[in-house]
Amino acid sequence: MTYLFSHWRLIGVLTLQHLGLVCAALAIALAIALPLGIFAARVPRASALLLGLLGALYAVPSLALLAVFVRYFGLGAAPVIVVLAIYAQFILVRNIAAALRAVPRAQLDAARGIGMSSRQQFWRVELPLASPVMIGGLRLATVALIAIATLGGYVGAGGLGNEIFFGLQRRYLEQTLAGSIPAALLAIAADAAFRALERAATRRTAG
Amino acid sequence: MVARYPRADRNAVDGVSFAIPAGSFSVLLGPSGCGKSTLLRTVNRLVAPASGAVTVGGQDVASIEPTALRRATGYVIQAVGLFAHMTVAQNIAVVPELLHWDRGRIAGRTDELLELVGLDPERYRSRFPRELSGGEQQRVGVARAIAAEPQVLLMDEPFGAVDAIARRSLQDEMLRIVRILQTTVLFVTHDVEEALRLADRIAVMRDGKLVQYATPEEMLRAPASPYIAQLFAVNADVRRYESLRNALAAAP
């Protein structure tokens, strides 16, 4: 543990970098997954096909996917963010679609019958009521991405993967742990934070 | 007027034509699947007629923008559909907010409506729907529907899901509220008893067709068909049986 304590400043920077990779990827992933999820919820027939496709992408080993994108984007953060965003699609789209489909019919009927436009129905009623399940999906995706983002160490994207990668290369276990332990703690913290959000949202929307 | 659902093999509403007097309380009565709800939903354009037209105050509803029409038309459904993430006050304020009323006016109107439907504003304003009983929820549902003083109030089996005692008191409240508001009410039910209690006029429907539209007295005195005579006769037997049973239960 002496390595971790003597390099705490470096580990701090790498942790922030790690978070940066994950947050950037999540932002991009959500921007894509939200419309896809809405589409999958509205068109059940297309949703099986779409989820099958995303499931196939999800099944590709992340390291292999990373290798493919390094070919196109070169080394650095870009290929990692792309891989993370792709990897998150399956989890996010499936959850967003399920969340929207689970919104009680009566409240949607009322929203429409009362004179809300489709857009108002979505933003004022559907999305808030779907939020607990959606946050659950976001939690799963975040935890998965924090783990996968360690691959960034292999391609010079920075993050906690750096310590794991170099530690393995030098057969220096302490350095490896200095990357893996903070990454694990980060995942646990993110999980707890999203669980709290999820609970709060559930309390607010329970019928 | 004719209405038909996609892929249906027959018309849900089949050649119905009648005029409802402004300010009256009309009940659409009939068994489930007779087209009464579909007919109701053509009034606020939730269903579009296949042919024919619905006019309100002389204006064809098809010429009114759907959201504007619905904001000017109250709508209460059996499942209530209060928004779970909003307080009672926020639920009631939905339509006034869609109409961009100012805050003060909305707050005042919300309290006034809660009083009107028999709920103390102090106690109920900031509660959430899940904290209310079924009957209380539907009172809020009614308040939400009449918040912006609609000319027409559409009610689709609004009291079908509440227990008998709460239903009775909701019916009484409804009569009182309607007398105050002087709104035209269209009320769907399959319950003959409820229809007789509430209606100025009853429209009996069967298989998508209008069998008779008349006051309850006329309908009882001169039923237009054996079907109607039977509908009310059976009900009279039920009423006699119930009063007999109540009398027995009350006897020492």
Which properties best describe this structure?
heterodimer, A: mainly alpha, 9 helices, B: 252 residues, alpha/beta, two-stranded antiparallel sheet, globular
Work out the oligomeric state of the chains in this entry: heterodimer
Order of helices and strands of chain B: EHEEHEHHHHHEHEHEEHH
Helical content band of chain A: over 70%
General form of chain A: elongated
Number of helices of chain A: 9
User: So what's the overall shape of chain B?
Assistant: globular
The number of strands of chain A is 0
The residue ranges of chain A in which pLDDT falls below 50 over 5 or more consecutive positions are none
State the helicity of chain B in percent bands.
40-55%
CA distance, first residue to last residue of chain A: 50 Å
Describe the structure.
The complex is a heterodimer of chains A (207) and B (252). Chain A has helices at 2-6, 8-42, 44-59, 62-73, 77-101, 105-113, 118-148, 161-169, 173-205. The relative contact order of chain A is 0.15. Chain A has 9 helices and no strands. Chain B is 44% helix and 15% strand. Chain B has 11 helices and 8 strands. Chain B has a 6-stranded mixed sheet with strand order 4-5-6-1-7-8, sandwiched between helices. In chain B, helix 5 crosses helix 7 (134-146). The model of chain B has no long low-confidence stretch (mean pLDDT 91). The interface between A and B is medium-sized, with 23 and 27 residues.
Helix-strand blueprint:
The complex is a heterodimer of chains A (207) and B (252).
Chain A: H1 2-6, H2 8-42, H3 44-59, H4 62-73, H5 77-101, H6 105-113, H7 118-148, H8 161-169, H9 173-205
Helix pairs in contact in A: 2-3, 2-5, 2-7, 3-5, 4-5, 5-7, 6-7, 7-9, 8-9
Chain B: E1 25-29, H1 36-43, E2 55-56, E3 59-60, H2 66-71, E4 73-77, H3 88-92, H4 94-98, H5 103-116, H6 121-124, H7 134-146, E5 152-156, H8 164-181, E6 184-189, H9 192-198, E7 201-206, E8 209-214, H10 216-221, H11 226-250
Parallel strand pairs in B: 1-6, 1-7, 4-5, 5-6
Antiparallel strand pairs in B: 2-3, 7-8
Helix pairs in contact in B: 5-7
